[in-house]
Amino acid sequence: MATRNFLTSTLVAFLGIGLVFASVSKNAFAHCDTLDGPVVQTARIALEKGDVTPLLKWVQAEKEKEIRAAFQKTLAVRAAGAEAKELADMYFFETLVRIHRAGEGAPYTGLKPGEAVDPAVALADKALEIGSVDNLVDVLTKAMANGIRVRFQHAGETQKHADDSVAAGRDFVEAYVLFTHYVEGLHATIKGSGGHHGEGSNGHRERE
Description:
Blueprint (H helix, E strand, L loop, with lengths): L1 H21 L15 H12 L14 H15 L3 H22 L15 H12 L3 H26 L6 H25 L18
């Protein structure tokens, strides 16, 4: 029962945060492996202009030759008609994003629709778009504070009855583990120990 009440409290506490995330402009930059993301958006413009240069910043230097070759091949196929253009563009998007993610030490799992973007990433890109990080800081700070408070309250309540019975003691231990692991995870993130989507270990290259 205690665990069920805790989960209900957690859901309520974060519902407001989720609504804030959902209000992020659809025009905000998206994640790098989505069709609405900055990598693909840059590729669309580059293909229309016939200039590969703006794309090269998304790949490591040793992969530049491969991207240039794929770009030229795509331009040639695009000239064959609308259907060929669509297929050629998708081939190039897939190639570019795959190489980009490999350079970041992350696996490529295919292109995703824009709505697959993590809300926090959308807020981060929105911050860059408008030139202000204040809203991002405010939303994430409140979410973190609420997460700590909810878990702390649950652990504190179950601790009061931890010695009443074995079952009550187990409820406390479960709440204690949830609380301390949450705080530990936040601390690890603050220290910057997390990688690119939890993958890789390439220093500053681990970020989008």
